[in-house]
Write a structure and sequence with these properties.
The chain is α+β, with helices and mostly antiparallel strands. The chain has a single domain (about 1-160), classed as Nucleoside Triphosphate Pyrophosphohydrolase. The protein is built from 4 helices and 8 strands, in the order H-E-E-E-E-H-E-E-E-E-H-H. The radius of gyration is 15 Å and the shape is globular. The two termini are about 25 Å apart.
Length: about 160
Amino acid sequence: MVARSRRFVAQHQNCFDRTLAAGHVTGSSWVVNPSRTHALMMHHRKLDRWLQPGGHADGDHDIIRVVLKETSEESGVDIENIRLVSENIFDVDVHTIHPNAHDERHQHFDIRFLLEIDDSIPIPGNDESHQIGWIPLDQVSHFNHARSLHRMVQKVRRMRA
């Protein structure tokens, strides 16, 4: 997926623009609590699935800024209370967005970063989700069994070991 994403970015100067029909770069976060036992997930209203926070770059080439902004907006947590664990990319995923009322079929080249939020502060969410909350890592697959989420859970578990 890393190689596919690199090729895509090299081939498309406007890869951060959602109007690129073939696909575009998106940014998302895997948000964990300080003890690394829970991940923050949201039940996305439009997609009707439990997912990690994230979204479109909308032309912004600073994908870390995109990820922090999207995480703050979708969680309802002030950006000052969100910690970027590392500037290194945590995960890369390429997935297909199937045709819907808003979009034709295209690819998301999702660049993911590990973030931390104190799980003792309120997480109000926003109107993009039905629900948002801390999910124990060993229960993430009950909410969404996607391979990419399993991969991120495993990475956090290895960090804790």
